[in-house]
Structures are given as structure tokens and as C-alpha cells.
Design a protein that fits this description.
8 strands, globular, 223 residues, 8-stranded parallel beta sheet, binds zinc ion, EC 5.1.3.1, 18% strand, alpha/beta, isomerase, 32% helix, Ribulose-phosphate 3-epimerase, TIM Barrel, binds D-xylitol-5-phosphate, metal-binding
Amino acid sequence: MKYIIAPSILSADFGNLQRDIEMINHSEADWFHVDVMDGVFVPNISFGFPVMAAVKKHATKPLDVHLMIVEPDKYIEDFAKAGADRITVHYEACTHLHRTIQLIKASGCKAGVALNPHTPVTLLQDVIEDLDLVLIMSVNPGFGGQAFIHNTYKKIQDLKALMQGVNEELVVEVDGGVGLQNIAALVSAGANAFVAGNAIFAADNPTETISKMKSLTTTAINI
Ligand code: DX5
Ligand code: ZN
């Protein structure tokens, strides 16, 4: 099983973005997690295409783009052109989710769906075969540095049950309040991709923290 560490550049120092991108390039991290917020779907605005283009210019690892925006269909092609490898939209933001997933795939990207903490995984039953990734939000989206919601463990287990015999290759990604203190337990629950902002960028040594997170995933006992 391959475990993915995806540092969230939302917590990077935007005045030193290139430095922080290089740090991730030279670390054991696997993906760049790119959080796009529109101030409508979530109560915060992060950044858009110019910042993403700057990240793409320097990043040597895939961009995992998390769209916390309404009407994502309008922008999928643009995010693909801006260098996204994976595009994840929110279940709660898509009236025609099946169509949105097909649009992402037609743009050449891997397709993901994110679930807010209150959204049950069973709502994905009829699209799970089409997905490459499910992102389980372990905080309410909008801000970095929030406290992890404990019910996430149960949701991961529910998702693993839903995947069984249908789409066992699905990436199970967890986002929000993830760090050294809970990553091994999340592996045990069944997650295999981990987004971390604050835990990495607020650490004294971000590179070493990424490395520790990575080794905790491989030493954890997968139950
Ligand atoms: C929250 C974002 C997260 C955020 C995680 O809405 O989707 O990706 O950056 O930050 P931490 O790891 O600090 O909770
Ligand atoms: Zn995110």
C-alpha cells in the first residue's frame, strides 16, 4: 500500500512561496495540496489561478487541487490547464455530480469528491465506481489549523465498506487537523492520503515533520 503525504500550501508563507515549494520538492512529500476557496461555498477566500500557476512553475510533484467553490463545472477546464493532476469537488457544491465527475475526467485529470463532516459516505454509492479519490473532511472546510473531528475514523471505515468489491483502488484522503498525533490511527482506519497544513508549516522543521509523518504511515499496523 502506498501512502501519500500532501502538504497544504494554504499554510505556506506566501511571501516565500518558492522557498516553501522547494522545501516540499526536496522532502518525502508526494503531492502538493492546493486549497481553492471562493468566499461563497466556504467563509474564506484563498487564492486562484495566478498563485496556482506560480506553484505549478516550481513544483516537481503532482498538484492535488481541492475546490471549495460553488459551480465548479465553470472552472474545471481552467484548473486542468493551470496544471492540476487531481481535481476534487465538494459533494455539497454539485447539483449534477455525475456530470461534474465526467467533466474532470474529460479534462485529463483524476477525479475526486470531498465530503463535509456532516455528509454521509453512502451518498456516493452511485458514483463510487467512477471516482479516483474521496476526500473526507475532518474539519469544516475554510481554514487551516482547526481541530480534528473524531467521527472521521468511523467515516473512513464506512467508506472502506462501500468501496469493497466495487472500487478498491480508490484513494481515501483525509484533510483537516491531521498530524503526527493521529496519522497512524487514520492509517489503521483505512486512509491512505493525508493532507496537512499547520502540522507541517508551523513545525520547527517542516521537512523532518513530513519525514516523520511518512514513516508513521509505514510503521502503522493496518487493521
Ligand atoms: C481546510 C483545507 C485544508 C487545510 C488543512 O478547509 O481544505 O486543506 O489547509 O489545514 P490543517 O492541516 O492546518 O488543518
Ligand atoms: Zn484541502
